[in-house]
Every structure is written in structure tokens, then in C-alpha cells.
Amino acid sequence: MANNPGFDKGANISNSSRTxxxxxxxxxxxxxxxxxxxxxxxxxxxxxxxxxxxxxxxxYHGINETTSCQNQNNQGTGAKTxxxxxxxxxxxxxxxxxxxxxNPKDETLYESTVFAPLTVNEMKLAxxxxxxxxxxxxxxxxxxxxxxxxxxxxxLLPPRKEDAIKYFYHNGIKPGRYARxxxxxxxxxxxxxxxxxxxxxxxxxxxxxIPLTRPGEIHFNSRPYDGVEVxxxxxxxxxxxxxxxxxxxxxxxxxxxxxxxxxxYFNGPPGLKEAERETRFxxxxxxxxxxxxxxxxxxxxLSGTVYNPxxxxxxxxxxxxxxxxxxxxxxxxxxxxxxxxNTIRKVRLPAGYRNKLxxxxxxxxxxxxxxxxxxxxxxxxxxxxxxxPRFRISGTKVKWMDWSFHISAGQLRGPALFDIRFKGxxxxxxxxxxxxxxxxxxxxxxxxxxxxxxxxxxxxxxDNTILRDVDCPxxxxxxxxxxxxxxxxxxxxxxxxxIFEEDGQExxxxxxxxxxxxxxxxxxxxxxxxxxxxxxxxxxxxxxxIDGKLYTVAKASGYIQASFWDEYNPHAGxxxxxxxxxxxxxxxxxxxxxxxxxxxxxxMDVIDSNNSFEVVHWKAxxxxxxxxxxxxxxxxxxxxxxxxxxxxxxxxxxxxxxxRLNYDNQKLFVVVNENTRNKWGVKRGYQIVPLxxxxxxxxxVHPAMKALAFTKYHVxxxxxxxxxxxxxxxxxxxxxxxxxxYLDRMLDNESIVNEDVVNWVTVGFLHVPTSExxxxxxxVESGFLLKPFNFFDTTATFDxxxxxxxxxxxxxxxxxxxxxxxESNREY
Length: 828
Ligand SMILES: *[C@@H]1O[C@H](CO)[C@@H](O)[C@H](O)[C@H]1NC(C)=O
Ligand SMILES: *[C@@H]1O[C@H](CO)[C@@H](O)[C@H](O)[C@H]1NC(C)=O
Ligand SMILES: *[C@@H]1O[C@H](CO)[C@@H](O)[C@H](O)[C@H]1NC(C)=O
Ligand SMILES: *[C@@H]1O[C@H](CO)[C@@H](O)[C@H](O)[C@H]1NC(C)=O
Ligand SMILES: *[C@@H]1O[C@H](CO)[C@@H](O)[C@H](O)[C@H]1NC(C)=O
Ligand SMILES: *[C@@H]1O[C@H](CO)[C@@H](O)[C@H](O)[C@H]1NC(C)=O
Ligand SMILES: *[C@@H]1O[C@H](CO)[C@@H](O)[C@H](O)[C@H]1NC(C)=O
Ligand SMILES: *[C@@H]1O[C@H](CO)[C@@H](O)[C@H](O)[C@H]1NC(C)=O
Ligand SMILES: *[C@@H]1O[C@H](CO)[C@@H](O)[C@H](O)[C@H]1NC(C)=O
Ligand SMILES: [Cu+2]
Hints:
9% of the residues lie in helices and 38% in strands. It is mainly β. The protein is globular. Bound molecules: 2-acetamido-2-deoxy-beta-D-glucopyranose (9 copies) and copper (II) ion. One 2-acetamido-2-deoxy-beta-D-glucopyranose binds at residues 312, 314-315. InterPro entries: Cu_Am_Ox_Cu-bd, Cu_amine_oxidase, Cu_amine_oxidase_C, Cu_amine_oxidase_C_sf, Cu_amine_oxidase_N-reg.
């Protein structure tokens, strides 16, 4: 549609992730406020009442455009009709000149698609089954205490690969749909987390609940954070916050808790050991006024730790308070005494600082004091589909230009594609986001050494509704996915994935000679999935090209996590503009350095599942050495004009292995099928090409390096195993002394020749925040490419219309002609 930007409506409820907000408000209310100069209305819902404490969870119900400042119709799209007759255009069914707008989706097939994400209905069914089986102990299904058992997460448990392949390729029976459910069992004598397989979900009559873990296997103290725990932490800290009130007022611009401040609990893992739980917390300004969104750019130099193991919150206590990095103070009274005694260095933020946070520092509003750039008041370039979509979506199966694949997703690991085929050949069985790791460095109590593994918090576990016309063109089709909200014990729907054909407006290939010329305009299908994980927004993208290439890209946007800039930090250097951990980025903020490493599962099936993994070494050296790789030659033939050359050395990996990119020893990674050859007798294959990427630099001795094992390699190859579904465990960073599901454990020397090989690809970037990262980070990206490698006998695009012309401008052929039309305002 032409309105811009359009925010989709949808329940936007922060779940148990880092965005979780629980607050002590005696009010169940719905408020809204508006900025006169602008057009957004934020609807804020505060709901939830728990055991005497009222708990508010803000449901950020999207942002609706409320003015009538609509775009003009997109007239004059300037269609240039081509003069060829290769393809006769079908008559578009225009509606007042609007482009035809066929709905490419058939959503009635959603639940009958093998890999479709679990729907709200299916999650309800699974939770009913667990409820009836007494796996859940909460009254009214509303968790009120950690001593109860309730569902943390729920998502599709994909069928066994063998069963899916049988079904898709060998007339096997259709695999049923199952939920993988994580239950936090606080009601058990020895509390723990259990995972279950629940289903088949078609009808509840024959559904089973099968445990996937053993009781006690997942220690209660290595569980992810959830809303009930945050409520208990807030409750526990109430007294301490009261004791700190005068200190807070004096230090932080007359701020009061909880009106102006919130407590941020998610500073890396809760302790370094499986059996312990120590939650480091930091105070931060509620930059978004009363809403605590993911505002972790305004954190303050006041921190402490809660000892909070087990489910008995009476055992919990606070300790290790720090103020401006001074401490630890055993108790809050120790800190207050020291503060009052003036034996402590103090900070005093200037009056008025706090009030400037929201509009001046945090909100991404155009600076109206600046003149518009020339013509910036006019709409920018746009593209549209003159004859409607060229892709179809049946349930969650997508077809476009001889590509086909299934879209799946889950709240912990995010989006995944299955059974990717091109021109009738299977290319990959699974291509899935698995985890995102961030390791921070900063000179701040409570926050130093933060490590996030985002699957632990859930990559798609809050509302990730797409912003039409911002995230994707308005003509994109959108698919729903669902997530389980542990606090409400209920599933929610969101329009989270968009699919569209993109006009690259460039040549996919071209050549212009003196007598002929030709090229192909690059168009590709995009599956785009923006997700929000607390402060950061990630955009995952899968791009399918006409020539058989497939790009997987991860982009980062959103807010950084900042740290307090302490001008008088006694161990800072002479240069007050930067320290060992980053730059000063504003008056009271530094941008701590960290990385973003994205881990993907890439289960290539080149033609079928019997593949091998070849490393093609790109070498350089003496001619003789090059020739000797192939024969027993002893003399260099005379036609070589240099003594040195580049050459290839082919290595078929016999055993599971992990690789790091190294510019001094460049390699090509190729998955080949030794049993099928192209017309020229060469093994057909696909190359895995990591794009520009960073590498893990923490040493092996770092306690988190096992949990983070997937960040040590860029490309890892293992033998496919049903029980090695992901490259990390969501619990390992919370039990780094006893990790159980990390990538290195899969590297157990198994043979991978002519086997079902799986690749694990990790790419990412280093982030040294600079002043341009405030308020919004500069968007950066990394990814990898899957590229046909002797897979086809020739360039794979010559079954497509293209442009070619001979001397004298005789057009030999061209793309289909089209009629100019006005961008359709239909949304699918
Ligand atoms: C294309 O047009 C040319 C000249 O108008 C004509 O000779 C030729 O038969 C046409 N080809 C097709 C496939 O219609
Ligand atoms: C501090 O805030 C209180 C209200 O919370 C107000 O009464 C007082 O005037 C404020 N003091 C200053 C110095 O702004
Ligand atoms: C909870 O902890 C408190 C304080 O240690 C103790 O007195 C109480 O007995 C514990 N409750 C249970 C159920 O273990
Ligand atoms: C208060 O400060 C004085 C010195 O300024 C020191 O002797 C005394 O121990 C301090 N008291 C506390 C409770 O820190
Ligand atoms: C998709 O999700 C939205 C937002 O929750 C909901 O309004 C809509 O009905 C859903 N569509 C389908 C087909 O389930
Ligand atoms: C794949 O390999 C297995 C044994 O390793 C063999 O049984 C099977 O026939 C092979 N399949 C193909 C398509 O080559
Ligand atoms: C090279 O020489 C070795 C031993 O002399 C022999 O076994 C081998 O077959 C030779 N290889 C080729 C390619 O001629
Ligand atoms: C190649 O190596 C030979 C033997 O080391 C040497 O004599 C010759 O000059 C070299 N040629 C060049 C072009 O460097
Ligand atoms: C891996 O397995 C091969 C074949 O069984 C064996 O020769 C080799 O020593 C093993 N390597 C390791 C590191 O265990
Ligand atoms: Cu970053």
C-alpha cells in the first residue's frame, strides 16, 4: 500500500526474553500518549496481577499512523514497453489502472504443510494435552510462582529427516506434526526443566507426551530467565531500592524508582556454574518514560548481584553492590553508609538530564531543526509487480522460478528453510538460523564480560510483526508464525515473515561486445524475517537467484547496549575519549566492544543425502610442486614463464572437522555428490562461501568457550544425526562448567565420505560502537552464499527470458513486455 510507513497491528508482548518487563504498578490500565508534532500513537497496555504484586507487562500494540498525510498515488511508473515478441503479455486485470494483485498464498494449507511453524491452535492443543496430563500445575494456567510447573517454550519439532525424505521422495507416509515443549518444573521436589515431544497434533485422541530429557538432566539453575523470576527479583529488590532512594535522587538527576528507573537483570549468564544462579543487575533510566522497552543504552553505574538459585525465593539475597565501580559492598546498607560518610567517589548528573533522554536521545525522530535535504519531501524510487506475483505459497511452501522450499520457524532458534530444491534437484535439506552469540567487554561493574547466546532468550519469541513498506515492499506477501508466551501460558500470532520478488535493478550477468550485447536483469526471491531480541533488531534474509545461488544474510540494527561514561574513572588513561573497551559516544555513555556471531545449520543435500565435503586449497608455490600434486613429473616443462604459480590442491575430508578462514591459506568449501557427475564428468557440488566475517578471538581457556564453540569455526562439517539438531544448547551458557550440547561435542572423528554431511556456518562482525550508533546503530551485515559448483553443465539461466541483441540493434530477445500500472494497494 502507498501509506508509509505502515505499522501492522498485532499483540506485541515482550515475553521472558531480555525485553521482559515486570513492574510494581497498582494499576491495570491502558494509556496512550501522543506527540503533537508527529503522528504516532503508542498504545500501552499494562496487564497482569500476581500474588499480591501487580505485574505489568507492556503490550506494545504497534504504532498506527493517524494523520491523513498519505502518499500520492504512485503514478507515472514509467513502464518502458519493450519491442520484442518473445512472450505475449497476459492482459492484466487492472482496477483503475492498478496493477493486478493475485493473492499468492493459500493459507488453508498451513497446518498440513510438514514444516509449517506451529500455529496458535496447535500450541493450544499441545498445552491442553499437557494440562490434562498434569504436567502443568499452575492455577488458571497463570504462573504465579517459581514453585509451579509451567510451559516455557513451544515450537515445531520437525520430523526425522529420514521420514521427511521418505515422504517427499519415496511415497512414504506423511509425518505427523509434533510440538517440542520446554516445561519449567518448579513444582517438583528437585525442580528442573524438562523437554517433551507432544503429538501428533492433528487430533488429541492419539497424541502422546514423550520426554526428550531425563528428570534432573537440565538443572533448574541453568534455565533461561522468565517473567515469574523477574517478578520475584523485582520484589526482592524493593527494600534495597527504598534504601537507595536518597543516593539515587542525588546521583541521578532526582530520579525515583520505579518511576524513572528500571532494573536490568540480563547481564550475561546467571553465574558461571550449572548449579548456581547469580544474577547481576544494573540500574537504568526508563528512557521511554514509563515504558521499559529495551532501553539498555541508559544504564547507570549502580549494580549488584542477587543470589537466586532454586525455587524458594526466601533463600535469595542481594550482595556485591557497586557504585561507580566502587565496591563490592556486601549489603545495600554498607554502600549507603559509605556514600553518606563521603568516603566514596560520587557522580551527580546535571539537573534536567533525565527529561532529555526520551525525545532528544532515544526516540528516532527526525530532527526538525534541520532543513530537509533537497527533494527529500518527495517520495523516493519504488518498484512494483506489473503482472502480479510470480511466486506461490501453499501453506508455507514457496515456489518461484523453479525454486521450491518450505518455510519453518520456532521461537527459540528463529527461521528455517527445509527441502530446498532448484530445477527438480534437492540442494539442501535444512538451512536454519540456530544461534547468535555476543560477547562484550567493558569496564563496568555488573556488565563486564556479558555474554549473550540469543537462542537462550528466544530469537523469535516476542512479537516480530513486519513493518510493511519499511522491512519489505508493500507488495510482499506475509506469513504468520506463532510463539508461546510463558507468562500468559498462551500462544500468539504474528505476521513475521515476508516473501517477495525483488527487482535488483542491475545485471545478473552481462556482456557487451562490438557485435552483440546482452544481459539479464537480476531478480531474486527474498524471504525476510526481522526479529527483535531486546535492544537489537536482526534481519534474516534468504535470497534465491535465477542462476542457482542462494544468499543467507544476517543484518543488525536497533540500539546498542551502552555503559556509563565515568569521566573521572581512576584507571582510565590520559585520553578521556576512549578506553580499552571502546569510545565515548555521548556525555555519559561509552559503547562497549562486542561481536555478533551468527550460527547457521546448513544441511546440504546435493542431489541426495550421500555427499562428501571437499576442501579445495588455493595454493601458490613452485611449478614443480603444483604439477607433482598430480603426477611424478621431475622437470618443469619449458613453457612456464615463471617459477611460481598458483594451483589447487583437492582434499576430500575423511573426518568431521571445523575450519577457520585464514587469508594466508585460502580454501574453498564444497559439498559434492560423488555419485553424480555433470556432463563433463565432474562431481556435482555446491560451494559454501562465507561473506566478509569476523572471527572469535577469545582464547580457549575462557570459561565460556565450550558453550560458544560454534563461534570458533566459520565452517564445520559433521555427519548428520537426528540428535544433533542445533549447533548450540540453549542451556550451555548458563552451565558453562558443564556444557552438554555444544558444537565441539559433535566433532568426534566420524567418517563423512559419501555420508549425509551437515555444515555449520558461523559468520558475523565485530562491533566497536561509535557516535553514529546513537540512537540507532549503523546497520551492518554478514552472511554466506551457496553457489552451484559444477552442478550444472552450463550457466543455469538460459531457460529464462533475457536481453540479447545483435549489431545494428536487432533485438534477438527480451524480457516479457508489460503494461504500466499503478502500484497495487492490496496486501497479502
Ligand atoms: C516476432 O515478430 C517478428 C516480426 O514482427 C515475426 O516475424 C516473428 O514471427 C515473431 N515471432 C513470434 C514468436 O511471434
Ligand atoms: C525532585 O523530585 C521531587 C518529586 O519526585 C520534587 O518534589 C522535587 O522538587 C525535585 N527536586 C528537584 C531538585 O528537582
Ligand atoms: C525456603 O527458604 C527459607 C529460608 O531459607 C526456609 O526457612 C524455608 O523452610 C524454605 N522453604 C522450603 C519450602 O524449603
Ligand atoms: C567514615 O569516614 C571516616 C574517615 O573519613 C572513617 O574513619 C570511618 O571509618 C568511616 N565510616 C564508615 C562507616 O565508613
Ligand atoms: C496472522 O496474525 C495476525 C496478527 O496476530 C492475525 O490478525 C491474523 O488473523 C493471522 N492470520 C492468519 C491467517 O492466521
Ligand atoms: C547412500 O549411501 C548408502 C550407504 O552409505 C547406500 O545404502 C545408499 O544406497 C546410497 N544412496 C545413494 C542414492 O547413493
Ligand atoms: C609415481 O611413482 C610412484 C612410485 O615410483 C608410483 O607408485 C606411482 O604410480 C606414480 N604415479 C604416477 C601418477 O605416475
Ligand atoms: C627459476 O628457477 C631457476 C632455478 O632455481 C633459476 O635458474 C631461474 O632463474 C628461475 N627463473 C625465474 C624466471 O625466476
Ligand atoms: C579418527 O579415526 C581414524 C580412523 O578410525 C583414526 O585413524 C584416527 O586416529 C582417529 N583420530 C582421532 C583424533 O581420534
Ligand atoms: Cu552490536
